[in-house]
Amino acid sequence: MNPITSQEAKGFGKVGVLFGGRSAERDVSIMSGSGVLAALQSQGIDAHAFDPGQRSLAELAAEKFDRVFIALHGRYGEDGTLQGALELLGIPYTGSGVMASAIAMDKITTKILWLKEGIPTPAYAVLHADTDLSAAAAQLGLPLIVKPPHEGSSIGFSKVEAVADFQAAYDKCAPLDDSVLAESFVQGREFTVAVLGTGAAARALPVVEIVAPQGDYDYQNKYFTDTTQYFCPPQLDDAIQAEMRDLAVQAYRAVGCEGWGRVDVLLRAQDNRPFLLEVNTSPGMTSHSLVPMAARAEGLSYEQLCVEILRGARLKNAKG
C-alpha cells in the first residue's frame, strides 16, 4: 500500500468518524471508532468524531463532512439505514451500500442467498412464537445454535444441547428480533477471513483462527478478556486456507459488499469442510479485533488499514 502523503491527507477534506449509535453494540462501536479516529488523526487527516446515537441527521448534514468512516456496528449503522441517509445527504462513506448492508445484517437472507449460490452454510430453521421447537430440534439435530438474525457481537447467542433448554434460548432472542434463527451446530475449528476492496479487486487477507475458552467465543471473550487466543496464520493446510479465502471473497461478492468486511467460517472437524456463518460489513476495529490482526499479517499497520478503507469512501447510487 502506498504511504499517505500530506497532500492526500489534506485531500480527504473534513472526515467524520461515525461511532456509538443506538444499537446493542454501542459500547463496542465506541471502542472501534475511538481507535479509527486516533489512527486517522495520526496520519494528518482532519478527522472528527460524530455519534449518531446522540446527534441528529440534521447535525450530521450541518457538519459538512467531505466523507465519513462508518465505525458503527449493528442496527442503525450497519444495516443500510444510515447508508441510505448518507446517499440522500450526498456524503461519501466507507463500506458497503444500502442493499448489501441490509442483506448482510439479516443472517437469514444472507443464508438464502449463499445457498442459492452454492456457498456452504449450516442448515437452519426460522423460529417464531408458534414454532414447534421439538420439531425444529429434530430437523436440525442437537446440539444447535440459537441467535437473533439482526444482532452481532454474539448478542443473544445460545448453544442448545437438550430440547428442554430450547425454549429458554428462544426467549433470550425474542425481545431482540421479530424472528429467531436456529442453526445446526458445526463441531470444529473457528476462523475468520477479512476482505478488502470491491468487485474484481476484492481480496482476502490472511486467515485468523479463534480459540476461545471452552470454545465459547461470546461477547465477553470477544472484547473484554485476554484468554481467547488468535493464530494468524493458523496451523492449517495451505490448500484449506486458500479454499476459505476464496469462499470468503465469493460470499462477499454474492451479497454485493464493498470496501471491507469480514466473513466468519467454521471448519468441520470430521472432514475439514468449511461452512460460512455470516459477513460483517462494518467489523470491529478494537484492540481485540480481527481485521486489524489479519492486516498486520499482510504488513498493513492499523493506521494504514484505516487509510485504505477511507480511500474507498464513495456514494454508491451516484450513477444514473
UniProtKB/TrEMBL annotation:
Major site of localization recorded for this protein: cytoplasm
Binding site for Mg(2+) 2: 278, 280
Name the UniProt record assigns to this protein: D-alanine--D-alanine ligase
Reaction catalysed by this enzyme: 2 D-alanine + ATP = D-alanyl-D-alanine + ADP + phosphate + H(+)
Taxonomic classification: Bacteria, Pseudomonadati, Pseudomonadota, Betaproteobacteria, Burkholderiales
Domain ATP-grasp: 111-311
Binding annotation for Mg(2+) 1: 264, 278
GO molecular function: ATP binding; D-alanine-D-alanine ligase activity; metal ion binding
GO cellular component: cytosol
Enzyme class: ligase
PROSITE patterns: ATP_GRASP, DALA_DALA_LIGASE_1, DALA_DALA_LIGASE_2
GO terms (BP aspect): cell wall organization; peptidoglycan biosynthetic process; regulation of cell shape
InterPro entries xref list: ATP-grasp (IPR011761), ATP_grasp_subdomain_1 (IPR013815), D-Ala_lig_Van_CS (IPR000291), D_ala_D_ala (IPR005905), Dala_Dala_lig_C (IPR011095), Dala_Dala_lig_N (IPR011127), PreATP-grasp_dom_sf (IPR016185)
A Pfam family matched in the record: Dala_Dala_lig_C
Active-site positions on this chain: 25, 153, 289
Protein encoded by which gene: ddl
Cofactor: Mg(2+); Mn(2+)
